[in-house]
Fold this protein.
Amino acid sequence: MERIKKYLLIGLNVLFLAGIPVFAEQNTQNTGMNLSTLVTPQNVPFEHCTRVYPMNAEKLFYMTIASINANRFEPLEMQSKTGYILFNAVNKEFLASIVNVDNKNTMLKITPANNNYYFAPGIISNIYKYIDMYGATPLTEIKSAKPAL
Protein backbone atom coordinates (compact mmCIF):
# COMPACT_ATOMS: atom_id res chain seq x y z
CA MET A 1 0.00 0.00 0.00
CA GLU A 2 2.79 2.39 0.87
CA ARG A 3 4.61 1.52 -2.34
CA ILE A 4 1.49 2.33 -4.42
CA LYS A 5 1.13 5.73 -2.72
CA LYS A 6 4.80 6.44 -3.35
CA TYR A 7 4.56 5.60 -7.09
CA LEU A 8 1.32 7.53 -7.42
CA LEU A 9 2.88 10.62 -5.81
CA ILE A 10 5.97 10.39 -8.06
CA GLY A 11 3.76 9.97 -11.14
CA LEU A 12 1.68 13.04 -10.27
CA ASN A 13 4.83 15.11 -9.71
CA VAL A 14 6.23 14.06 -13.08
CA LEU A 15 2.97 14.97 -14.85
CA PHE A 16 2.82 18.31 -13.07
CA LEU A 17 6.44 19.24 -13.88
CA ALA A 18 6.08 18.10 -17.50
CA GLY A 19 3.11 20.43 -18.02
CA ILE A 20 4.89 23.61 -16.86
CA PRO A 21 6.97 24.15 -20.05
CA VAL A 22 3.88 23.60 -22.22
CA PHE A 23 2.02 26.43 -20.47
CA ALA A 24 5.07 28.71 -20.58
CA GLU A 25 5.42 28.20 -24.35
CA GLN A 26 1.76 29.06 -24.93
CA ASN A 27 2.13 32.32 -22.99
CA THR A 28 5.11 33.51 -25.05
CA GLN A 29 3.26 32.78 -28.28
CA ASN A 30 0.34 34.98 -27.23
CA THR A 31 2.57 38.03 -26.65
CA GLY A 32 3.67 38.39 -30.28
CA MET A 33 7.16 37.54 -31.48
CA ASN A 34 8.97 35.00 -29.37
CA LEU A 35 12.69 35.01 -28.72
CA SER A 36 13.64 32.65 -31.53
CA THR A 37 11.82 34.84 -34.07
CA LEU A 38 13.68 37.96 -32.93
CA VAL A 39 17.10 36.30 -32.92
CA THR A 40 16.86 34.12 -36.03
CA PRO A 41 18.08 35.88 -39.20
CA GLN A 42 15.33 36.30 -41.77
CA ASN A 43 14.33 38.61 -44.60
CA VAL A 44 13.08 41.82 -42.98
CA PRO A 45 10.73 44.02 -45.04
CA PHE A 46 11.81 47.63 -45.58
CA GLU A 47 8.61 48.86 -43.90
CA HIS A 48 9.86 47.46 -40.57
CA CYS A 49 13.04 49.51 -40.89
CA THR A 50 11.36 52.93 -40.71
CA ARG A 51 9.36 54.60 -37.97
CA VAL A 52 8.07 58.15 -37.41
CA TYR A 53 8.37 59.70 -33.94
CA PRO A 54 6.63 62.83 -32.60
CA MET A 55 9.85 64.57 -31.52
CA ASN A 56 12.44 66.87 -33.04
CA ALA A 57 15.47 65.54 -34.92
CA GLU A 58 18.00 66.44 -32.23
CA LYS A 59 16.19 64.51 -29.52
CA LEU A 60 15.68 61.50 -31.79
CA PHE A 61 19.38 61.56 -32.69
CA TYR A 62 20.39 61.44 -29.02
CA MET A 63 17.76 58.80 -28.23
CA THR A 64 19.08 56.63 -31.08
CA ILE A 65 22.65 56.93 -29.78
CA ALA A 66 21.44 56.02 -26.28
CA SER A 67 19.50 53.05 -27.66
CA ILE A 68 22.52 51.76 -29.60
CA ASN A 69 24.62 52.09 -26.46
CA ALA A 70 21.99 50.43 -24.24
CA ASN A 71 21.73 47.45 -26.60
CA ARG A 72 25.53 47.12 -26.50
CA PHE A 73 25.97 47.67 -30.21
CA GLU A 74 29.22 49.24 -31.37
CA PRO A 75 28.90 52.77 -32.78
CA LEU A 76 31.39 53.22 -35.63
CA GLU A 77 30.65 56.71 -36.93
CA MET A 78 28.27 59.55 -36.02
CA GLN A 79 27.40 62.71 -37.91
CA SER A 80 25.05 65.02 -36.03
CA LYS A 81 24.78 67.63 -38.80
CA THR A 82 23.45 65.21 -41.42
CA GLY A 83 21.82 62.96 -38.80
CA TYR A 84 23.26 59.52 -39.38
CA ILE A 85 24.85 56.88 -37.17
CA LEU A 86 26.82 53.92 -38.47
CA PHE A 87 26.93 51.05 -35.98
CA ASN A 88 27.90 47.40 -35.81
CA ALA A 89 25.50 44.78 -34.44
CA VAL A 90 26.08 41.03 -34.58
CA ASN A 91 28.98 41.43 -37.04
CA LYS A 92 26.84 43.43 -39.44
CA GLU A 93 26.92 47.17 -40.10
CA PHE A 94 23.73 49.24 -39.94
CA LEU A 95 23.01 52.84 -40.84
CA ALA A 96 20.55 54.81 -38.72
CA SER A 97 19.31 57.93 -40.52
CA ILE A 98 17.27 60.66 -38.86
CA VAL A 99 15.15 62.78 -41.24
CA ASN A 100 12.74 65.65 -40.48
CA VAL A 101 9.23 64.93 -41.72
CA ASP A 102 7.74 68.23 -40.53
CA ASN A 103 8.12 70.58 -37.55
CA LYS A 104 6.89 68.04 -34.99
CA ASN A 105 7.68 64.63 -36.52
CA THR A 106 10.95 62.93 -37.36
CA MET A 107 11.60 59.63 -39.14
CA LEU A 108 14.18 57.08 -38.02
CA LYS A 109 15.33 54.69 -40.72
CA ILE A 110 17.62 51.79 -39.76
CA THR A 111 18.96 49.88 -42.75
CA PRO A 112 21.82 47.44 -43.25
CA ALA A 113 24.88 49.11 -44.76
CA ASN A 114 25.24 46.45 -47.47
CA ASN A 115 21.50 46.51 -48.43
CA ASN A 116 21.15 42.83 -47.52
CA TYR A 117 17.94 42.70 -45.48
CA TYR A 118 18.60 39.18 -44.18
CA PHE A 119 19.25 39.79 -40.48
CA ALA A 120 17.68 39.30 -37.06
CA PRO A 121 14.68 41.65 -36.70
CA GLY A 122 15.38 41.97 -32.98
CA ILE A 123 18.21 44.39 -33.77
CA ILE A 124 15.93 47.15 -35.01
CA SER A 125 12.96 46.27 -32.81
CA ASN A 126 15.10 46.63 -29.66
CA ILE A 127 16.19 50.10 -30.77
CA TYR A 128 12.58 51.10 -31.42
CA LYS A 129 11.43 49.67 -28.08
CA TYR A 130 14.07 51.69 -26.22
CA ILE A 131 13.04 54.92 -27.95
CA ASP A 132 9.35 54.16 -27.33
CA MET A 133 10.06 53.53 -23.65
CA TYR A 134 12.30 56.54 -22.93
CA GLY A 135 11.25 58.98 -25.67
CA ALA A 136 8.99 61.00 -23.36
CA THR A 137 11.85 61.90 -21.00
CA PRO A 138 13.19 65.43 -21.53
CA LEU A 139 16.79 66.02 -22.57
CA THR A 140 18.87 67.71 -19.90
CA GLU A 141 22.28 69.26 -20.24
CA ILE A 142 24.91 67.93 -17.89
CA LYS A 143 26.89 70.85 -16.53
CA SER A 144 30.55 70.33 -15.82
CA ALA A 145 31.74 70.73 -12.27
CA LYS A 146 33.62 73.92 -11.51
CA PRO A 147 37.20 73.32 -10.47
CA ALA A 148 37.95 73.87 -6.79
CA LEU A 149 40.13 76.85 -5.98
User: Anything to note?
Assistant: Strands lie at 42-43, 50-53, 74-79, 84-89, 92-100, 106-112, 118-119. Residues 46 and 117 are 8 Å apart (CA to CA). The helical segments are 2-30, 35-39, 57-70, 122-134.
